[in-house]
Amino acid sequence: MTEIVTIQGLQKKFGKFQALRDVSFTVNAGEVVGFIGPNGAGKSTAIRILLGIMKRDAGQAQIFGKDVWKDSLEIHKRISYVPGDVTLWGNLTGGEIIDLFLKLHGGGNKKKRDYLIKRFELDPKKKAKGYSKGNRQKVGLIAALSADSDLYIFDEPTSGLDPLMEAIFQEEVEKIKETGKSILLSSHILSEVERLADKVAIIRQGEIVESGSLDDLRHLTRSAITLVTEGDVAEMTNVNGVFDFEQKEDQATFSADNKHLDEILMAASKLGVKKFESVPPTLEDLFMRHYES
Amino acid sequence: MRENFAQWETLFLLNLKRDWKKIIVWILGFGLFSAAFVPAFKEIAKGNGLLGMFETLQNPAMIAMVGPTPVGTAVDYTLGAMYAHEMLLFCGLFSMVIAVLHVVGHTRKEEDLGLTELVRSFQIGRQANSFAAIMQIVFINLLLSLFISVVMISFDAETISVEGAFLFGASVGIAGIIGAAIALVMVQIMPASSSATGSTLGIIGLLYIIRAGTDVSNVDLSMLNPLGWTYLTYPFTENNWIALVFALIFSLIAVVVAFSLERGRDMGAGYLPSREGRESAANSLLSVHGLFIKLNRGTIISWLIAFIVMGAAYGSIYGDMQTFLESNEIMKQMFAQADVSIEESFTSTIMMVMIALVSILPIAIVNKLFAQENRAYLSQIFATKVTRSRLYWTSIGLAIITGAAGILIAAGSLGGTAVSAMGGRSTMEIADFLGSGFNFLPSLLFFIGLASLALGWSPKSGKVVYVYLAYSFLLNYFGGIVDLPEWFSKTAIQSWIPRLPLEDFDASIFITITLMSIALIIIGHFGYNRRDMIEGA
Ligand SMILES: Nc1ncnc2c1ncn2[C@@H]1O[C@H](COP(=O)(O)OP(=O)(O)OP(=O)(O)O)[C@@H](O)[C@H]1O
Ligand SMILES: [Mg+2]
C-alpha cells in the first residue's frame, strides 16, 4: 500500500504553548481517515502544517512522499482543501470564485462544477458578501470536489450545512472514495466520520491517543448489552469485563469489554439466556471515552 | 526562491479585477488633486504674487509645514518652483498614506480574515500574495505618475517643463512605493492588521515631523529621511533625480527585508510576542463604557502621544521666527503693516491644521461602533438589557471627551513649547493657544455630528466623514494660498470659524455650530434606534 500522507512525531509550539506534542499517523492510498478530537486538540494546526501554511518545529510530515514545507507547491497540484470557515472576497460572485479556485488548482472539471452547483443548490450569480454561512461553505466544497485531486483534506467541511446538504456532501465524498482517492476528514459530526472513514485517528491535547481502523477500535472498547436470564441476572456483576451494571426487574443492561466477551457469554449461558442484545459501540462512545479520561 | 512567488501574476490580475473601481478613483481623483492646480497657481503668480509667496515661505514655520525650496532669490522663483514647493510634500504624504492602507488591506487584513488560508492551499507560492500586492502598488503608482505628468504638461505653462513634470509625477509615485514598502515590513512584525496600519502611519508621521526640524535647521539632513526623497527632488528647479534612486534602493531593501521576515513567520502570526491576558475581567471592564474605553484605548493613547509630539514639533519653531523677521526686511514690513505678530499669524494657521488632525480621533471612535456591529461582535450584547441608546451615547460621549482632550493636549503642547522656545520675548501666553484651539471645538463637534448621522442612518458611509474632513482641511489649507470664491470655501466647516488669535472670537458662530452638531447627533440617535443592525455585510 502506498502511503499518501505520513506524519511522524510532529510538534508545534505557539510561543510557549505546545499545540502539538507528538502527532503521528498515515493515510494510505484509497483510504478515508477520520481525524477527530476535542476543541483545541490541534486538528486544524496539524492540517495547516500539512498544507505548508505553517511550519513545524519538529517531526516528519510528507504527502506523496514529498516534504510538506519544501515541496508544498508540487503537493498542492494534487490536493484539495476545504476549511471549516470559508471566507470569500465579498465583491466577487460565488461562480467567479469557484472558477478562480479551479484555475489556481489547475485541474478543474467544468462539467462537475456545474453539476455540483446544481446539486448543492447554490446561486452562483450572487456576490459572496450576500452569502449565508452555509452558502459560503458550499462554494469551498464545490471548488474542492470538482477539482481532480489525489488527496482531499477537509477540516470540518460541513459546518453550517443543513442536513440535506450534508447528506449530499457525504454522497459526493463516497463517489470520490470509490475512484480510489484518499481523504483526510476532520469533523465533529461523528456519524459523518463513521459513515465515511475506514480509519480514525483521535487526537487529544496535541497527542494522538488512538488510531486504527474503526473495527479495531471497536474491538478495544465495550458493547452495550441487554440481557434477561432464567437464573438471577445479578450474578453477572462479578464477571470479568462487565461494567456499569444496571438491573430493572429481571432485565440487566451493562457494557461489556469486547476482550472478555467470551467469559461473559459463558457466564450468561450458565444462567440460561432468555434475551441477549448487543449493540456495538458507536464512534461516539469511543470518542467519549477518550474525551473524558 | 522562485517557488515562493509562484502564480503571483494570477493574484495580481485577480486584485486588479477586484479593485478596478478603486484604482480609477485613486488615479483620477488623487492625480487631478496633485496636478490640476496649475491654473490656480498661475493666478497667484500674477503681479507680485510670486515675490510675495517666496518671502512668505521663507518663514521657518512655513518651511516646517510645506518644505524648503532650492531657489535662493525671488527672481528665480518661477511658477514651477512654487508649484513643487507648495504641493509636492503634501502630495507625497498623501500618496504614502493611500498606499499603506492599500497594502495592509491586501496582505495582513486578508490573513486576519482567513482568505489567505484557502488561497495558500492551491499552487500559490507562500509569498505570492505579498509580491502581487507590492507589484500592484508599483503598477498603480506608475500609472499615477504618468497621469500626473501628462496633466501638468497639458497646461502648457512656460516654467512647467516636461522633465520637471515627469519628475514631479515620479516623486508622487515613488512616495506611494516607499509607503507600501514600509507597510510591508510592519505587516510582518505586528500581530494584526490594525496595528500594522497604525504603526506604519505613526512612522510616516514621525518622518514628517523629523523632516520639519531638519528642513529648518539643515536641509542636508532631510536627505537622510525617506520622506525627503520625494519632495527634495525639486522638480522644475534642480530636477534632482538622484533622490529617486535613493528612494528606489530604500524601497527595494525594505521589500527584501519584509520578504525574509515573512518567510520566517507563520500565517497570522507576527514577531511581537503576545502576552497571556487576565483570567477574569477587571471591574473597570464590566460596563458598556468600560468596554468601549478598553476597545479604543490603544488608538486613543497613540493619537494623544502623536498630538503631544506634533504640538512640540511646531512649537519649537517659534524661537526661530523673530530671528527670521529681523533678517527679512520685506516680511518685517508686511507684519508691521498688518499690525499682527508673526507668531499670532502662524498660530492661527497651524491651529487649524492641528485641530483638523485631532478631529480624526473622535470620528474613528464613532465609526468603530459600526465596525463592531458589522463584524457581529455586538450581537450578544444587543441581546441583553443594554439598550441601543446606551451603546450610542457611550460612543458619542467617549468621542466628545477624547476630542476635547485632544484639543487640550495639542494646543497645550504647542503653547507650552512655543512659550518656552520664545523665552522672554514671548508675545503670547499659553491661554492664547488654548483659546485658539478650543475656538475650533464646534468644528470638531460638527465632525462628530456627521459621523453620528452616518452611524444612525447610513452606517456604511461613515468613511465619507473622513473624506469631508480631508476636503475641508485642504480647502482651508490651500484657501490661504489660492483665492477661492467665498461660497466655495464656505463649504468647509472650519471656514465659518474666525481664526484666533488673528481674528476675534465670534460667540454666535460658536454657539450656532455647536447647536447644529448637537442636532445632528440627536437625529443620528433616532436613526440608530430604529434601523436594522447590519452584521457581516
Ligand atoms: N496561531 C495561533 N497562535 C496561538 N495559538 C494557536 C494558534 N493556532 C492554534 N492555536 C492553539 O493551538 C491549539 C490547537 O488549535 P487547533 O485550531 O489546531 O484546534 P482544533 O483541534 O482544530 O480545534 P477545533 O475543534 O476547535 O477546531 C489551541 O489551543 C489553539 O488555541
Ligand atoms: Mg479546527
Automatic annotation (TrEMBL), chain A:
Pfam families: ABC_tran (PF00005), DrrA1-3_C (PF13732)
Family annotation (InterPro entries): AAA+_ATPase, ABC_transporter-like_ATP-bd, ABC_transporter-like_CS, ABC_transporter_ATP-binding, DrrA1/2-like_C, P-loop_NTPase
Record-level Gene Ontology MF annotations: ATP binding
Sorted UniProt keywords: ATP-binding, Nucleotide-binding, Transport
Protein name: ABC-2 type transport system ATP-binding protein
Source domain of life: Bacteria
Homology family: Belongs to the ABC transporter superfamily.
Keyword Acyltransferase listed: no
Annotated ABC transporter domain residues: 5-230
TrEMBL record, chain B:
TM segment ranges: 23-41, 87-107, 128-153, 165-187, 194-214, 241-261, 300-319, 350-370, 391-413, 433-457, 464-482, 507-528
Keyword Transmembrane in record: yes
Domain of life from the UniProt record: Bacteria
Sorted UniProt keywords: Membrane, Transmembrane, Transmembrane helix
The UniProt record lists the keyword Membrane: yes
Name this polypeptide is given: ABC-2 type transport system permease protein
Organism: Salimicrobium album
